[in-house]
Amino acid sequence: MGKPRVAIFDFACCEGCQLQIVNLEEELLDLIGAVDVVEWREALSEQSTEYDIAIIEGSITRPEDEKRLEIIRTRAKILIALGACATIGGVNKLKNNFEMQDVKRCVYGKAADMPHLDTTPTKAVDEVVKVDYKIHGCPIDRKEFTYIIRCLLMGKRPEIPDYPVCVECKAKGNPCLWEYEQVCLGPIIRAGCGARCPSSGFRCFGCRGYVDNPNVNAAKDVIEKYGLTLDVLKSKMVLFGSTQGPTNA
Amino acid sequence: MHNDMNINVHHITRVEGHGNIVVNVTNGRIEKLQWQVPEAPRFFEAMVRGQSYEDIQTIVSRICGICSITHSLAATKAVESALGLKVSEQADKLRILMHYSEQLQSHTLHIGYLAAPDFFGAPSVVPLVSRAIDVVKTIVRAHRVANEWSDLLAGRTTHPVTLIPGGLTRTPAEKQLRQLQKTLKDTIPDLKVIADVVLSVAGNIPKFERQTEYVSLKQTNPPTYTFYHGGITSDDNGGKVVPIEKWHNVANEYIVEQSTAKWAKWHRDSYAVGALARFNNNSELLSPMGKEAAKMFDLKKGCCNPFMNTVAQLVECFHIVETSITMIDELLTKGLKAEKVTSSPKAGKGAGCVEAPRGILFHEYEFDKKGNCIAADICIPTNQNHANIQKDFEKLVPEIINESEDSVRLKLEMLVRSYDPCISCSTHMLNVEFVK
Ligand code: SF4
Ligand code: SF4
Ligand code: SF4
Question: Which of A246, B78, B86, B268 has the fewest CB atoms lying closer than 10 Å?
């Protein structure tokens, strides 16, 4: 078998996850040697319709994008959702809190009804097509990205943590941010980022999505201990669309 | 003379976001000449309604992966202005340093990975790896330094997690800043190598000029080549400075007769923002190395060749690194202190403005008394450049119409790339239809 042909596609997103791939710097040069990158609009001029692995960044917000995604799916043997926009909808799902007409009017005023501004409620990639692998995070973690790609190249199934961020946070010896009155989502969010945000003194806002079976009781205990209401936690939980649509990896 | 030409670049590559170029020439007549943007709108201004003032910068940094620190800073400044929060001098300096890290990161990405292949006649940076591995490695190194710098101050290279209304979540250790300073000093020779390489291919930068208005931040007290503080100025208003709260008077959005697109204008039909605009308005305030770099390329105040924006970015790289080395000295001399930041909700409205790598950026928010957002307005640099790109097209195409179709296509692509557009940022971007 020759080198696997890889194509990277972007939908509605900030392209920050693609940037993390660029940010692999020297390591990217190695990785590019191991595969054939056949399409990557942000970095290359080439385009292709033949590929083995399709990497999808961004969430799906328009009917025409659903169609494009379906075509990509039929061409790819393996389809990977890259980053929170693709895996859980990301911040783009905040839009779904409103009527689409209201959303369009709010931004475009009188021009809201023009056809090219049409928008539908945001979907994660797996709400449209089958996803084989998910690379979590907003943005993705570079180390995890290379780990997953290397696993695939070796025909192995990557192992993605299914325990909460608190585990990594405790292992780092961080003081818990709840003690500093920050509503941190660490107890229910999937680890794998090395507790990036709490380690910088900032609450986890849930960019990697929930663990498969969040320990809701433990979360309730934490809320009670700090005298907060469930609403406060809920208001933080919606930030990355984690309450809407599939979150299982 | 070409009688017919049909260029249709569907999704120009090596830019952030989706843009199309359409040129139709029939019997020597330009029938259609368009810069189109088919990017899926994401509706951030609608999305943030109802969200707490504490979370705004986290949400809106996702407008753009390449200038996420910039968006977070503009949003945080707007929130602080709305809530009347003051930031300490130390936090202010650290934020500026954090902002510089992103300027360097974005500029090296654009110069090295996105624009340079055009100068070498290559379709991307990948073939350059085998042709000029040393140069590519130098660019990669400079880019990595910028990323590690962001990591240290922003907690991540993309989407900062240390910015909060009122200050920062943490203070770096003095040792870390000293190390950063050393790394920056070591980066100067790399920047010189990159400048030499760009200079060696500078002959491939098209000689095209079009008078236009250049809009940027300007800081008079103390006079500074600014990316962060100050008010709005343009080379058309005689050095006057407009306070950022009045930004709506600058970025006047308007609708063109033959099109439905909203464009921005101030004193003329269009204006340009970005490194060249900053240079044209503030070049006398550049650091010595920045000035030297400008001289190398014969870049002078009043330059109106949009292709030179990439060179202006390179000049800024020198300025940023040199200025940061001095700022770190100032911080270390004063000594760093851990600072506790608190804030509480309040009703209010405020605007925040900073220079994104690709030009001036405005954020504005209004909050209710619980600190929840009730309205937002964001105006990104690429939107402000949109009309200017179209106007450049209209002057450039007739000048080069006798060249081959490939050459016309390449020059138009290069022109768009030289603006370093950040199309996924667009919140108001509409399709442009221009028919001659
Ligand atoms: S997941 Fe986050 S970083 Fe990645 S593309 Fe979406 S918004 Fe950007
Ligand atoms: S700071 Fe957050 S992630 Fe860390 S232990 Fe506390 S709740 Fe868990
Ligand atoms: S700590 Fe939470 S928000 Fe931060 S990167 Fe990890 S999962 Fe995402």
Answer: B86
Cβ-nearest to A117 among B41, B123, B159: B41
Q: Please answer whether residues A97 and A165 qualify as being in contact, where contact means their C-beta atoms are separated by less than 8 angstroms.
A: no
Closest Cβ–Cβ partner in A91, A114, A197 for B47: A91
Say whether pLDDT at B83 is over 90.
yes
- CA R_g for chain A: 19
Interacting residues of B389 by C-beta distance below 8 A, sequence separation 6+ = B35, B415, B416, B419, B421
**Model pLDDT for residues A51-78, shown as the tens digit of each residue:** 899 999 999 998 889 999 999 999 999 9
Indicate whether A115 pLDDT > 80: no
Cα gap B356→B321, rounded to integer Å:
17
Show Cβ contacts of residue B203 under 8 Å, excluding neighbours closer than 6 positions: none
In this predicted model, what pLDDT tens digit does every residue of A129-171 receive, in sequence order? 999 999 999 999 999 999 999 999 888 999 999 999 999 999 9
Pairing mode, if any, of strands A36-40 and A5-10? parallel
Residue B231 to residue A155: CA distance in whole angstroms: 56
For ligand 1, atom 2, the nearest C-alpha belongs to A138
The amino acid at residue B287 is: S
Q: Which residue of A has its CA nearest to B118?
A: A45
Report pLDDT for A77.
93
User: Side chain identity at B191, as an amino acid letter?
Assistant: L
Inter-CA distances, B345 with B39, B172, B229, B243, B339, Å: 35, 27, 25, 25, 20
> Peptide bond before A139: cis, by omega within 30 degrees of 0?
yes
The ipTM is 0.91
Asked if residues B362 and B247 have their Cβ atoms less than 8 Å apart, the reply is yes
pLDDT tens track for B164-177: 999 999 999 999 99
Residue B135 contacts A, CB cutoff 8 Å: no
User: Which of these, A38, A150, A132, lies nearest to A86 by C-alpha position?
Assistant: A132
Mutate to test the interface with A, among B13, B42, B424, B425 (most CBs of A within 10 A): B42
Structure confidence at residue A244 (pLDDT)? 47
pLDDT for the residue B433: 29
> Is A233 near ligand 2, meaning CB less than 6 Å away?
no
Cβ B72 vs Cβ B61: under 8 Å: yes
Mind listing the pLDDT tens digit for each residue in B341-378? Answer: 999 999 999 999 999 999 999 999 999 999 999 999 99
The pLDDT tens digits of the residues spanning A204-217 come to 999 999 888 777 77
Ligand 1 lined by A241 (C-beta under 6 Å) = no
Q: B49: closest CA among A130, A52, A105, A65?
A: A105
Check if B378 contacts A (Cβ < 8 Å): no
CA pair distance B71, B355, nearest whole angstrom: 10
